[in-house]
Amino acid sequence: MRQGITPSFEYLPVRHTGGWTVVALHGEIDIAAALTIGPRLDTITALPRRRVVLDLNAVCFLDACGLELLCRARRRSAARAGHLVLVCVRPRILLLLRITGLDDDFTVLPSVADAIPGSGPVAAP
């Protein structure tokens, strides 16, 4: 295993860089995906002061279960004095966040490099 890479799960490649945990979600994040992703995100957000980036740039569909997954991760992170940032440039996902008012609850940035101060470009695993 390469250093800094956590084993990938079906929807959840995870890597660590610059003191941040970067979770790259992809595909359709619906109830079926949420059942797979939820427990892993719970584990990631269980540690105190964990800094997490959820990269949504490869997500093509997000439903109410997917939104709840993001909200739960944000709440768990905040409750443990952590920090959670979303990365997304997908117009449909950004529109969904705006329509639901969640764009005010999350920090949303265009790239992982923008989310992690001083990191420069982050190579995919």
From TrEMBL:
MF GO annotations: anti-sigma factor antagonist activity
A matching Pfam family: STAS
Residues in STAS domain copies: 10-119
InterPro entries, alphabetized: Anti-sigma_ant, STAS_dom, STAS_dom_sf
PANTHER family: ANTI-SIGMA FACTOR ANTAGONIST TM_1081-RELATED, ANTI-SIGMA FACTOR ANTAGONIST TM_1081-RELATED-RELATED
Homology family: Belongs to the anti-sigma-factor antagonist family.
UniProt-recorded name of the protein: Anti-sigma factor antagonist
The organism of origin for this protein: Streptomyces spectabilis
